[in-house]
Design brief:
three-stranded antiparallel sheet; Beta-Lactamase; 341 residues; 12 helices; Enolase-like, domain 1; five-stranded antiparallel sheet; homodimer; alpha+beta; DNA-binding
Chain lengths: 341, 341
DNA sequence: CGTTAGCACTCGTTAGCAGTGAGTGCTAAC
DNA sequence: GTTAGCACTCACTGCTAACGAGTGCTAACG
């Protein structure tokens, strides 16, 4: 589709623009090492590339900048993935070598490292607990009208809810409830807990325990709140260092988008696994039409657990970021793999 | 210290400036209803107020703006606390009337409401768990080399850590461990758990359970990580709407500050209880010398639980925000009071 | 003596305008 | 097919002039 020379020129323009954030002119490309053509020739090719939709011109007398389509071609065919540099690799490895005993801490910290190393904004989704299954259930009474319900999943994830207990309930019966729930619900996936509770456990429970309707009711409600997985952000302020966002209004819409956890989550779930690059207008949400979002889901045994993402201007250092995300997501999968087994 | 007229003028200037974000001139004050003086008189007083340090002049031919000292005087002596308006009050009340069964959700949501209602950035510190005491301890085995340790406190707060288990450990012994730990450690404050574990439980445990050294060790480590209370941010992007922060560089330092959870936490803990107003340079951290931070700790029975805060430009709507924070922190205390008892 | 009208002065802001230079598209020659 | 040459465009810079909001000072007023 593109001639070898066109590809070379497109590649040069994208590379230059990523470095400088300024429209690239024909002269500066011609002067590059390894390019044996005059500015005029380059100009002709650039005009062609613009007509094909790979380049854009901010105004008549300016150089060219890549369009979304241009970046897309660059990412798909031209980009040379950089080896992650020694220092960064060391940082990642030493981070994952650390012993940690709180999942949240790990993820939070990973997000921080990522944003620090790239100067972009990192977004990390914690492991999906949706299809975890119940390993253990526990009830701890707090006072005579409430208790904490604790759910431990097969992956070691712990959720807790506060539930109400009828005032006339005999606390010593709680143990019975816990036992019945554990035997009946062990191994059931979280998203089926609620329906299973009502369909199979309710009756059984009623047979052995008095006044359990209210508990059932309260438990049912507690289980309904879908176990939303947490979103960790880091380095949002990095957006402000990008020259394309020196205008406050532009960055405001992006920050608003970042503030909206639900929207953000929607953009992240239902992503195909592996590394995904969404460039500019390819993003579903208008607010980030001037941004690129690169995501990598970390998975284990082919099952996707969660997602790591980086948000930056379309003029992103794809070569560096993609390979870094690759390394990080794989290391993360390994770590969590150890964790789970 | 100040004459009645000076107070009136200072009050007018602060009010005007809070509304308009523009330096206030003598004429506009003179034209206000209820002010019976000519611009010239006002000018004389303004010159005096500037000499006293309450006002500043951005440049010779501009109006005056309040200095930190001016705001301080305003907040201490002049501000008229607005009644929280009907709509807002309704929103707060209906929010707290909702039944919720996850503490984190409540706090997160409260932060959101607060930032939405004020258009400032809200910062909420979750309840301090430091001096909670242990109500129940539980161990759930995950596989043959690790288990989840779960700690429930008297306030219903749940913490969990993953710990290692020696490969040759008999899983059926776990129950013994749990029992011993529960009887020995129930009622012990979290911050004393670790030392208590080593000083009193270790020996006892060794008597009944084989190979427990590694478990002790792992547990000890897990308990050492101080239960940092979580920080919830909302509406960081609101900063970008303030005219004083239309310059990206200024807002960058503030955003960086917000990104640094530890620094932020330090600024929040060890605050006196009640409503605190920190204006401009009164703030410890340089990054927010152009901001005001208003905090209210929510407490129950005189014991401080956590803190709600609002960050905005020094030109903040103190009258509105202070009363709103007052209402919110009290409602929050009531809600958590119900929760805990 | 406090208050006020008048006035010169300051200084940031805006608009207009010429000059500069980077970069282009086109054409004709190599 | 490639390139040198050239006219053209247009953002950007620096300069000047006009504007106006607001001040400080002085002198007059009640």
């Amino acid at each position: 589709m593109l001639t070898e020379r066109q590809r070379m020129i497109l590649n040069a323009i994208v590379d230059d623009y990523i470095r400088s954030a300024e429209p690239v002119g024909s002269r500066s490309i011609s002067k590059r090492g390894g390019v044996g053509f005059s500015p005029a020739t380059i100009r002709n090719e650039m005009a062609d590339l613009e007509e094909l939709g790979f380049l854009e011109q901010p105004h008549t007398s300016a150089g060219r900048i890549p369009s979304t389509k241009g970046y897309r071609y660059y990412v798909d065919h031209l980009v040379k993935l950089e080896e992650v540099n020694e220092g960064d690799l060391l940082r990642v490895r030493s981070f994952f070598a650390k012993k940690m005993n709180q999942m949240e801490q790990i993820i939070q910290h990973a997000a921080m490292i990522l944003s620090n190393m790239t100067n972009y904004t990192s977004i990390v989704l914690g492991p999906e607990t949706f299809d975890n299954s119940l390993r253990a259930f526990q009830l701890v009474p707090l006072n005579d009208s409430s208790a904490v319900a604790i759910i431990v999943t097969n992956t070691g994830h712990v959720e807790n809810r506060t539930i109400s207990i009828p005032p006339d309930f005999d606390m010593s019966e709680l143990e019975k409830v816990v036992n019945i729930l554990n035997t009946k619900l062990a191994g059931v996936p979280l998203h089926r807990l609620q329906s299973k509770l009502f369909s199979e456990v309710g009756e059984e429970l009623g047979r052995y325990v008095d006044h359990c309707e209210m508990i059932m009711d309260s438990l049912g409600k507690a289980l309904s709140s879908e176990s939303e997985h947490r979103v960790f952000l880091s380095g949002a302020s990095n957006m402000l260092t990008q020259p394309e966002f020196k205008d406050v209004d532009k960055v405001k819409t992006i920050m608003d988008w970042l503030d909206e956890t639900p929207v953000l989550m929607k953009a992240f779930t239902s992503l195909p696994s592996g590394i995904q690059v969404r460039i500019g207008s390819e993003n579903d949400h208008d607010a980030i039409h001037t941004c690129s979002l690169i995501t990598a889901s970390y998975s284990i045994d082919g099952k996707s657990l969660g997602t790591i993402g980086l948000l930056g201007p379309t003029r992103m250092d794809y070569g560096k970021v993609i390979s870094l995300l690759d390394v990080l997501s794989k290391d993360m999968a390994v770590l969590l793999g150890r964790w789970y087994k």
